[in-house]
Task: structure prediction
Amino acid sequence: MPGRLQYKSALITGAGSGIGLESSLLFAQEGANVLLVDISQTAVERTAALVQERFPDIKALACKADVGNEAEVKAAVDLAVKEFGRLDVMFNNAGIMHPKDDHALNTEEHIWDLTMTINVKGVWYGCKHAILAMRQNPVDETKGLQRGGSIINTASFVAIMGAATPQLAYTASKGAVLAMTRELAMVHAREGIRLNSICPGPLKTPLLMDFLNTAEKRDRRLVHLPMGRFGEAIEIAKGALFLASNDSSYVTGTDFKVDGGLTSCY
Ligand code: NAD
Result:
């Protein structure tokens, strides 16, 4: 059976760990050539090697870049287009949660600025350069390739509900991702460019586990999870694959929740 991303190319940020790592493997399994971006050269090279080893027929390239730096994001998009001839899927997934952020009364300006630079401006840069590239995608009816593409931006459940452990800058940044994604989705809908946010619930990845760094903190969080467990990165990657593929051809501007029911829970 042909893969759901056959003949396509995808750029995934934050590919060195967690959701980005699992998405890199899954998108490659579904036939996409993948340009893998992370601020950690070691981590992204490890992911690219793993993808290439498991799926030798596809191309997997590692690119060290900081999504908070527009020139580096543009260079990564340009590299994908140069190497693969097109960009069909942009997964703006990289994000940070500063361990020292807390709430309005004691978060600090430099924490706020760093969080906004990576989580908000990073997504904006990714959208901007992906849109410019997707407009130029060559059409090939025989392979089902169209102009346009799919852009997926990682937000969070905290963009929808108030978190019990406040991370003010992080929460505000993820709300901005939802708002920006909706607006861009409306502006570019008629160009065949779909934009959606994905909202993961709490996951067993370094980002959250480093924050909930004691058994007591994790147990306190688990009480509030309807399924009684943290999510796995692969469960988010599967949601992202749906948004990346033509299976979601009539889906744009949505906040796609993959959160184990958390945001529906009282
Ligand atoms: P993770 O820490 O496992 O992976 C994040 C990756 O992003 C790392 O490899 C890191 O090196 C990379 N990265 C960090 N800053 C970067 C930058 N400036 N440029 C390029 N790469 C950078 O985290 P994860 O859990 O897979 O998180 C991925 C996304 O999911 C983030 O946007 C995060 O906010 C979001 N999210 C995570 C959770 C959770 O519980 N883990 C919940 C909701 C949303």
